[in-house]
Amino acid sequence: MISNKTFDEISIGDTARMSRTLTKRDVDMFAVLSGDMNPTHFSDEFSMMLLERQKVSGHSMWGGALISSLLGNDLPGPGTVYRSQQLHFHGAVELGDTLTVTIMAKEKRSEDKTVVFQCRALNQRDEEIITGDAIVKAPTKKPTGDAVLLEDLRYHPRRAFQDLIEKVREYEPLVMAVCHPCSRTSLEGAMDAAEASIARPILVGPAERIQKVADENEIDIQNFEIADTKHSHDSAAKAVELCRSGEAAVLMKGSLHTDEIMRAVLKRDTGLRTELRVSHVFIIDVPTYPKPLFVTDAAINIYPNLEDKVHILKNAIRLAQSLEIEEPKVAILSAVETINPKIPSTLEAAALCKMAERGQINGAVIDGPLAFDNAISKEAAKIKGIQSRVAGEADIFLVPDLEAGNMLAKQLQYLVDADAAGIVLGARVPFVLTSRADSPKARLASCAVAVAVASAKRQGKIGGGAV
After folding, report:
1. Is residue 146 over pLDDT 70?
2. What CATH number is given to the structural domain containing 259?
3. How far apart are CA 244 and CA 191, in angstroms?
4. Looking at the structure, do residues 42 and 190 belong to the same domain, yes or no?
5. What pLDDT is recorded for position 156?
6. Fewer beta carbons below 10 Å: N end or C end of the chain?
7. Domain that holds residue 379
């Protein structure tokens, strides 16, 4: 039930209190909603330069918003109307600080049914951060009926990639062989990874051509190693050789055709083959889903059979584990959630589930066949009578074929504004397979994913020669 305190019910001295810890997500959300993009809230460097603070602080009015929420939700509660607010700010709120906000009724004005509240906010060290007075018109009647359901009032800022990049910065930067970075986009992708301190690129390609691209686009590559080659085929062979010898831990595609570098990767004697089939995974940060989605395979295996799907699934599970998802939940997608002999993907889904049950596929909770709505929504699964640990909580979508996966990934990107990173697995080293249409954020996230996988392999978190 909704509750409030009417003007007549409020007594001098009545108080309400709440505590809230400032997170990076709070800062991002407040910036989006308020439009206040002051860089001192996002960059330690700007905070030190302009404010002489060691690290970023939250928006001052974030604390003011907490006072507003107390007045509107608790005391007086629903029906409250602001008349005025006077605030004094005595200190900054840094990330991780916990503000305890208290409001206390100190004056009632019968002529206009307003109440004056004393407002105060202290941090976890009992330091005074905000003081002031709020004048509100208190409600004069009680609400009736049940509370308004707000389950659908959600905001999911896309933080998955940024969180991943920040996490990977904690690792030692690994050497990344960047194959044929002879375009602005591919060269900038390598530079972004270096600038973010997540990788140390070796630029593999014709030195004069790389330098020309750098000069034309004012990109400083003076401090980067260049492995000079004659042409794109030579670049592919050299980049793979660097990875095969252990000089590089990550491979990244530049401005050559995918089939050129894939031929070099898959050569039986000189490539990067392992016991697993090579496959691709999209890592997609969807604004309306609370965690990243892994979609596989949407780029390499066109019509995979059951044996191929075992490899594709094992690759995706290892990827999730390397990103600290200990037991990923896998939805094996089809058009329906029942087994239908006329739809081969449902039979393969059933077989994969039985293989997991018998220990042939480990490390994940697997269910299928599941239609997309059942995989993504607990409510949809419940309506159809499906009892599943995966429904509504899937981490990995194993798609029937490349066409279905590619359409799903592109729909999420272009219809719901999702961000997508991509990586190729199953070879000796992770392989960043970028597209010309990828945003800088997506390219950097793809590099971060590859570095996370390579680091997990080196630390023994994922086994085998393949990643």
Report:
1. no
2. 3.40.718.10
3. 23
4. no
5. 57
6. N
7. 160-458
